[in-house]
């Protein structure tokens, strides 16, 4: 399958074929349509977890709240690992220098 250049932004969780806003941080990835679909699914999971009530069911229960945060962090890690794996050399270098992510990629 043919790979195309895409621009991924963490701020909105959107994937574009071309960058359109100079104020937004984009990660460049080379990916097939199927790989982009998988990345979109991860962003949808993150969005659902951010707006779910799981972390607020028992706000005074630190264990429950921490489990919710751990779930979100796991999804974020998967997103960054996927971006790293599909990323251009520039993207890979940027992710390697991010605090804490160098141990995950």
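-> sequence recovered:
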């Amino acid at each position: 399958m043919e790979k195309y250049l895409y621009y991924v932004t963490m701020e909105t969780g959107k994937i574009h074929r071309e960058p359109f806003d100079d104020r937004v941080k984009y990660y460049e990835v080379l990916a097939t349509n199927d790989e982009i679909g998988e990345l979109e699914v991860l962003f949808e999971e993150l969005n659902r977890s951010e707006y779910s009530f799981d972390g607020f069911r028992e706000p005074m229960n630190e264990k429950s709240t921490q489990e919710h945060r751990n779930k979100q962090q796991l999804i974020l890690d998967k997103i960054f690992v996927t971006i790293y794996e599909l990323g251009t050399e520039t993207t890979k270098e940027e992710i390697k220098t991010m605090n804490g992510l160098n141990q995950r990629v």
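The mean pLDDT is 87.
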